[in-house]
# Entry
Amino acid sequence: FDSDRMTGAVRKKMTNGIDNTKCMVVFVNQRYRDKVNGDDDRDNCRYEFTYGVEQKGPQCMIPVVMEPEMLNPRDWKGELGAALGTKLYVNLADDDEKTFKAACDQLYNDLMVIIARQDPSRAVDAISDAMNKTVISKSTSFSSSALTCNFDGAPGSVVISGAEGPRAGMV
# Structure
């Protein structure tokens, strides 16, 4: 994704996105785990994840599991497992419509909690929003290893990380 759609100083754009975000959503699949836990310091997935952990900390990161093979966090190992292996994850590995909607609701609520924790003045709005709507939709053609997007009306409130391959979610 980065090499296809981001031009110029890709890593600078990644770090700017992370520096100006409140939360990172990390889409976990086998390929992403292998890249983050790999030895290639030139890999953008590894770079972005490491920078996100250093700057935001795991408390501002939400793991979203995209493949059934990744449902056991003990299989994440390495840097990915160390940073996110003890966190509750959102399960988007199931294609069932009802399960997917429940997982999207969970992701939205988790995002609202993190955003409200960082900006208490928005806590009431975040709770109200979480109770009244879900703004996440499924897309099988979207994948990202670094994308800054708008969420709940606040520019730069979420960074999407990971989920290279055919299955990914869109926030």
